[in-house]
Write a structure and sequence with these properties.
Distance between the termini: 90 Å
Helix content: 25-40%
Number of strands: 7
Radius of gyration: 31 Å
Order of helices and strands: HHHEEHEEEEE
Strand content: 25-35%
Shape: globular
Length: 202
C-alpha cells in the first residue's frame, strides 16, 4: 500500500513538473513582441494602412458623375445638377466660365455656384454633353482631375477637380469651362497614382 502511494506521488510530481516546464515555455513565447502586419510609419507612431483602390472602377464612376451632371444642366433644375457638387461654402468650391458675353466669371462656394447656373440660364439653355479625355486619380482614390470637351450653347474645353464623399460618391469641387484661357483655375493633383490615358513618355 505504501509502495503504491509513493508511486502515485512520484507520478504526480513528475506530471506537475512537466506542466510547469511547459507553462514556462509558453510564457516565454507569450512575452515575445508581436510582429506588425505592416511596417510602422515614420511619423505619428501609427501603422501604415495599405489602401487598395480599384482605379478603373473609380474612373468609370467619375466619368458617370460628371456626365450625369452635364445632362442635369439641361433640366435647369438646381436640385438635379447641384446634387453633383460638393456642398461647401469654401472658396475652394467654384465654377469658372466665359458664358456671359465672353466675360470671365468665377462663382465661389456652393450657393454662388447654384446662383451662377441659375443666372446663366437666362441667356443659355439646352442640353449639355461632355466627352471626357483624361482622368487622373490620387493615391487614396479620393481626388481626381478631369479634362474633356463640352457641347452646350457654346463648345469648349472643361477641366475639373472631383472629390469622393463616402456617402455621396464622386462630386465636383471645381469646374473651369474657360479652356484655361485665363490661367489654370483647377487644383492639380501632384504625382497622381493613376492617369488615363498614360503620359506619352511612359
Amino acid at each position: 500500500m505504501e509502495r503504491n502511494f509513493i508511486a502515485y506521488l512520484t507520478c504526480a510530481l513528475f506530471i506537475v513538473g512537466f506542466i510547469a516546464c511547459g507553462a514556462d515555455s509558453t510564457d516565454e513565447t507569450d512575452k515575445q513582441p508581436a510582429q506588425p502586419s505592416t511596417p510602422p510609419t515614420t511619423s505619428g507612431g501609427g501603422e501604415v494602412v495599405q489602401i487598395i483602390v480599384d482605379y478603373p472602377a473609380e474612373e468609370a464612376a467619375i466619368i458617370e458623375a460628371f456626365t450625369l451632371h452635364a445632362e442635369a444642366i439641361g433640366t435647369e433644375d438646381p436640385n438635379k445638377f447641384m446634387a453633383y457638387w460638393l456642398k461647401s461654402e469654401s472658396e475652394d468650391v467654384f465654377v469658372a466660365w466665359v458664358f456671359w458675353a465672353g466675360a470671365f466669371e468665377k462663382h465661389l462656394g456652393w450657393k454662388a455656384v447654384k446662383k451662377g447656373w441659375e443666372g446663366i440660364f437666362h441667356i443659355r439653355k439646352g442640353n449639355m454633353s461632355v466627352d471626357i479625355n483624361s482622368v487622373a486619380i490620387n493615391t487614396t482614390g479620393k481626388k481626381a482631375n478631369v479634362r474633356g470637351s463640352y457641347r452646350w450653347a457654346v463648345n469648349g474645353i472643361v477641366t475639373a477637380l472631383m472629390v469622393k464623399d463616402r456617402e455621396e460618391g464622386w462630386q465636383i469641387k471645381q469646374a473651369d469651362y474657360t479652356g484655361e484661357k485665363f490661367g489654370k483655375q483647377i487644383e492639380e493633383i501632384e504625382n497622381p497614382a493613376y492617369v488615363n490615358p498614360p503620359p506619352e513618355d511612359e
